[in-house]
């Protein structure tokens, strides 16, 4: 019988391997989809699902994304979009931390909130969604609240952490833990027509400066709410920051905050 590399080479089309061939290879060689994807990328070829990435992200960079691990804290308005975009991008290992279930008030803005998912754990719903989008992703759903006691375990092995939280106290805790563990943190926050994005690297205190004068723990989004487009916009900017960190490319929002006013369609930058 032909080896896996020979099998893949015989079915190569335009330097790409289709999803159907990936499935066939997994069944024939008794391997996971993730293992087949790794073999394809190691050979310098591209899984066909990423063909629209290839003018922006090289095969070598696609392989780098596949070997990366990102943890997203919160699977709601921001986290749901971030997780979906990272899975479509091809990040190989995703961890989602959220102890909440979907409620009716989530339906107006949270990507994975549907009538059929009401009452279900958000992390479980994300797991099903990602499996349907990109089965090559190794996805770890964790139905726990982020806390000091479990923080090191939840973030272990991650190259980047994404803030999808909605309380200031927990955000500051996450900032502190990421600093201790030397992990970059991509922050996002939303409120009505407004949002902000920033990236904090080890040794920096971006979030502490941002929330220095805050006297309440509740995020403003819990007071003023959010329409559907605000989390989608901010989450996409967060995903772009994660991608740049993993690939070592581009200019990051370090020591500065990008502030969005979608009502006036204005972007401002705050230096920290």
What labels describe this entry?
272 residues; alpha/beta; Rossmann fold; 2 domains; eight-stranded mixed sheet; two-stranded parallel ribbon
What does this protein look like?
With 272 residues, the chain is α/β, with parallel strands linked by helices. The chain folds into 2 domains: 4-57, no CATH class; 68-271, 3-Layer(aba) Sandwich (Rossmann fold), CATH 3.40.50. It contains 11 helices and 10 strands. A hairpin with a 4-residue loop joins strand 9 and strand 10 (266-271). The mean pLDDT is 95.
How do the strands line up in the largest sheet?
5-4-3-6-7-8-9-10
Oligomeric organization of the protein chains: single chain
Structural class estimated from helices and strands: alpha/beta
CATH superfamily heading of the largest domain: NAD(P)-binding Rossmann-like Domain
Under CATH at level 1, the class of the largest domain stands as: Alpha Beta
Helix content, binned percent: 25-40%
The rounded Rg comes to 19 Å
Low-confidence stretches are: none
The name CATH uses for the topology of the largest domain is Rossmann fold
| Discrete helix count | 11
Q: Which secondary structure elements does this structure contain, and how are they paired or packed?
A:
Elements: H1 4-10, E1 16-17, H2 19-29, H3 33-42, E2 46-47, H4 59-66, E3 69-73, H5 77-89, E4 93-97, H6 122-133, E5 138-142, H7 151-155, E6 160-163, H8 168-181, E7 185-191, E8 194-200, H9 206-210, H10 221-224, H11 229-247, E9 256-261, E10 266-271
Parallel strand pairs: 1-2, 3-4, 3-6, 4-5, 6-7
Antiparallel strand pairs: 7-8, 8-9, 9-10
């Amino acid at each position: 019988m032909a080896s896996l590399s020979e099998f893949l080479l015989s079915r190569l089309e335009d330097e790409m391997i289709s999803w159907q061939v990936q499935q066939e290879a997994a069944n024939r060689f008794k391997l996971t989809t993730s293992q087949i994807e790794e073999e394809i990328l190691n050979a310098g070829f591209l899984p066909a699902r990423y063909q629209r990435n290839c003018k922006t992200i090289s095969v070598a960079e696609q392989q780098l994304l596949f070997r990366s691990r990102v943890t997203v804290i919160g699977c709601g308005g921001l986290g749901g979009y971030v997780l979906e975009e990272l899975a479509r991008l091809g990040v190989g290992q995703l961890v989602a931390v959220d102890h909440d279930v979907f409620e009716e008030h989530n339906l107006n803005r949270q990507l994975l909130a549907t009538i059929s998912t009401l009452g279900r754990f958000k992390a479980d719903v994300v797991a099903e969604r990602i499996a349907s989008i990109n089965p090559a992703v190794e996805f770890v759903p964790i139905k726990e609240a982020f806390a000091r006691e479990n923080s090191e375990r939840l973030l272990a092995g991650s190259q980047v952490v994404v803030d999808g939280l909605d309380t200031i106290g927990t955000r500051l805790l996450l900032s502190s833990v990421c600093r201790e563990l030397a992990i970059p943190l991509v922050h996002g926050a939303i409120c009505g027509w407004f949002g902000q994005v920033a990236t904090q690297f080890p040794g920096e205190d971006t979030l502490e400066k941002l929330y220095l004068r805050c006297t309440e723990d509740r995020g403003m989004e819990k007071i003023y709410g959010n329409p559907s487009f605000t989390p989608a916009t901010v989450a996409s900017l967060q995903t772009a920051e994660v991608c740049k960190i993993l690939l070592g490319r581009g200019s990051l929002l370090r020591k500065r905050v990008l502030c969005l006013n979608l009502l006036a369609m204005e972007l401002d930058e705050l230096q920290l």
